[in-house]
Amino acid sequence: QVQLVESGGGLVQAGGSLRLSCAASGRIFSNYVMGWFRQAPGKERDVVAAISWSGGYTYYADSVKGRFAISRDNAKNTVYLLMNSLKPEDTAVYYCAADTRTIPFYGRSWSRPDFGSWGQGTQVTVSS
Fold it and tell me: Which of 42, 90, 125, 127 has the greatest count of CB atoms below 10 A from its CB?
């Protein structure tokens, strides 16, 4: 298991930006595909973005394409989510997660059970 700690959430006006960070410890960070999920009140926890082991491949949910960017720094054991042009509907608790599987990056379902390690979450609130 890898330990994950998110930071960077907060309150921002619509159209603004935030950058979330997720620091990992405990295992070899570059062995993990990393993902960001979010969960709004009363809704499922859904994937927002994911990034491959070396950062060469990325995946984005349709709702955030062109606005969010995921990146990682394996030397710092950290994954980031830069969120631009934020909308009130982006309001949620954001979680980072790690997937240890070695299956190909593309073709995955990006479902919650695929990720074995989770952070505690960080609240993002976008006001209109």
Answer: 90
CB 21 within 8 Å of CB 8: yes
- The Cα 30–Cα 100 span in angstroms is 10
Burial class (CB in 10 A: 0-12, 13-18, 19+), 29: buried
Q: Mean pLDDT, to the nearest integer, of 35-54?
A: 97
Cβ within 8 Å of residue 124, ≥6 positions away: 9, 10, 12, 18, 20, 38, 83, 86, 90, 91, 92, 93, 94
